[in-house]
Amino acid sequence: MSEQHSSSSNERFDGDAPACRTTLGLVLENLTDEPPRGAWAWARTTAGVVALLFALQLVTGLLLSFYYVPSADAAHATVSYVEKVLPAGSWLRALHFYGSQLLPLALFLHLLQMLWRGAYRRKPVGWVAGVLLLALVMANGATGYSLPWDARAFFSTRVAENVAGGLPLVGSSAHAWLVGGAEISTLTLSRFFALHALVVPALLLAVVCARLFFFKEPSRTWEGVRRSSKGEEAGHSSRQEAARRTTGGDLNTQQCVWTLAQLARNAVVAGVVFAALALYASKYTAPLGPAAEAAPPGYLPRPGAQFLWLFQLLKFFPRPVASLVAFLLPALFLAALALLPFTRKGRVAHAATLTHTRRRLGLAVFAASALLVAGLTTVARLQDARDPRVREQLAKQAEKEAEFRQAPFAPLHTGGAQTAGGTDTATPSSSNSAAPSDASQAAQPPEAFTRNCSKCHGPHAEGKSIYPSLVGISARPRRTVEDIVAILNDPRSYGLESRMPSFAKKLTDDEKRAVAEWVVSLK
Amino acid sequence: MSACSDRAYFASDGGGLQTAARPRDVIMAMPEETPTQTERGGGERAPVHLRRKLLLWIPASVFASVFGSVAAAAFRFLRPRAGEVGASGGASGNWFPVAKVSELGGAEPLMREVTIEHRAGWSVTPRDHAVFVLPGADRRVVSAVCPHEGCEVEWDGVQRKFLCPCHDSVFDADGARLAGPAQSDLARLPTRTSGDTLEIEYSDAAQPPTQSGSPANG
């Protein structure tokens, strides 16, 4: 930096032109707060940890979705396939699982340090975005818990169902909308998957994008510095532009170097967190028990670490109250936080007083929730450890899980109904074994059918091996006589497989009609 | 990292810059990480550049190692698993029982349905495949699947030929192609006798692919 003092209007500092011109630069500028002081620079690396965990959840979730199938029949098989067979599967799943528990904690700490530094005042959008992210991350943790469809997942779904169903007024419809019907079924799992993998992540990304790209919250500190150094200069001549390009502003350089240094600090802390998480995930797999159907009687469900407090809290209240508490308490906490930058309590004389009040309010909310969560979690763990019956049952469950984990992967036998042909056609023909005889009593197959069609479709059109039954096709898929005639003339136009040959020239029109009428009459 | 424009990061010429009093106070109040060397004047540029490069290297290397370890896992995780897709006979490999040796010996080809388990990752789906055990001491087995479009051929005892009902391909009693749109013979399947049981080895590669897929209804 030069030691010269500026005399007149400064041509180099320019509040309009940000130091960082690329998109990432603008993002960084948006994220940049005041220059750090001492250890605070390190405390502020919670941002990097949140970003790391968020990215990690997205990537690992994306990878898991390559194999996962959200159906009550297949979900557990696909998750155990990932867990037991696929290389790196259990590591990726463990990253996703433990990451989902760390993310709320990281966001909580992030909000706490923002509150402590007063950053929520300078950057209200960033603050509200943080609160929204916390809410969405918790929602995603709750929906994600159902997906493996083991006993733990099933009971977590049941808790969500009960909480939603116990709400006053909207209870029953909330319940029906959540589970997709009157009771938990494969539809519930599809819904939870859609929420977990598509809806909530889309909202999360929307919040993140809004925070990074739409709402500009450039650091006021730097702005102020620039403005004061810029003076009242207004016009931009091309000469000035050229001068700026060749020389480069000192303040901009300073800000960029500081931004880089802070980026480096964030990277260091995030790297340490990742290394720790990666090691932990390689040593401790994410829990997976036997399939939900195999849950032993007396199964004691226990939620994930981030929901243990809620689980304990629900024990204290009868059902309708519990639902309200489970909804209202987190909602109140998040609303109080989100509204913090906008509170204006009464008539406050000094800005400093307002700041103090807000900070105290915010800290009180944080302290209360931290105490509540930590206390309830401890109580939950202590109660489990104290009660010998519970302890015994939990130990038994853990043993069953270990047993399941040791057992080799058992692939899911997808049933005969979907078989390429044989059993598919066998099922209707065997279940309707009376039907062909009824049909034959009603009308014998026309000679043209026996001669041309029965080789594949069977003497009574009951189907054979890979060839479909024709019984009931007037009901499903609603074939008419005209349809059948058209199919005989040109099967391809109905999308039938090429094994079905055309009979346009092999049959006369009357024969086609006779065959079609007989086939449509089959029920 | 293109965090900032070249102008800001790699300004090579800082000489003659004018700095107002207030900004400099802020700059002086910066923590150690800011390159204090810059304030000594234009002569000591190199350390600043080194420092900036170092600052870029830290996030870049952290990003690279996180990305690298996850990408390596993702590669192994997503790599197609050839061994787990296709026919599987469970414990006995790809060998499937077709008939008892004692049943054989007739003059006509014997049609048999063999249930083959098709494994794909986490799922196993049984499918029926029709085969013919040809008469003769060598107990040859041919697939009943027409190599043309995958229909199942039928034995015509009068003509002593295999006829495909779909597109009129014709094969002789050994399964060799005689006429029709099919371009090859009926597929021979490897056989072995295990005790009293004749077994065939089934592999997807030897079969026309048309056996899969759902039948179009009606």
Layout of SSEs?
The complex is a heterodimer of chains A (523) and B (218).
Chain A (H helix, E strand, L loop, with lengths): L22 H9 L8 H4 L2 H19 L10 H10 L4 H29 L1 H4 L1 H21 L6 H15 L5 H9 L6 H29 L5 H11 L7 H10 L2 H34 L24 H8 L3 H21 L11 H36 L1 H19 L5 E2 L8 H10 L2 H9 L4 H6 L1 H4 L23 H9 L19 H13 L2
Helix pairs in contact in A: 3-5, 3-13, 4-5, 5-7, 5-13, 7-10, 7-15, 8-9, 8-15, 14-15, 14-16, 22-23
Chain B lengths: L5 H4 L11 H8 L17 H33 L6 E4 L6 E6 L9 E11 L2 E11 L7 E3 L10 E3 L4 E3 L6 E2 L5 E3 L8 E2 L1 E4 L2 E5 L17
Antiparallel strand pairs in B: 1-3, 2-12, 3-4, 4-5, 5-10, 6-7, 7-8, 8-9, 11-12
Structure commentary:
The complex is a heterodimer of chains A (about 525) and B (about 220). In chain A, about 65% of the residues lie in helices and about 0% in strands. Chain A is mainly alpha-helical and about 525 residues long. Among the domains of chain A are: about 25-225 and about 250-295, Cytochrome Bc1 Complex, Chain C (Up-down Bundle), CATH 1.20.810.10; about 420-520, Cytochrome Bc1 Complex, Chain D, domain 2, CATH 1.10.760. The longest helix of chain A has about 35 residues, at about 350-385. Chain A is elongated, with a radius of gyration of 33 Å. The model of chain A is unreliable at about 1-20, about 230-250 and about 415-440 (pLDDT under 50). Chain B is α+β, with helices and mostly antiparallel strands. Chain B has a five-stranded antiparallel beta sheet, with no helix packed on it. Chain B has a four-stranded antiparallel beta sheet with strand order 6-7-8-9, with no helix packed on it. Residues about 1-45 and about 210-218 of chain B have low confidence and may be disordered. The interface between A and B is large, with 109 and 81 residues. Strand 1 (about 410-415) of chain A pairs parallel with strand 4 (about 125-135) of chain B.
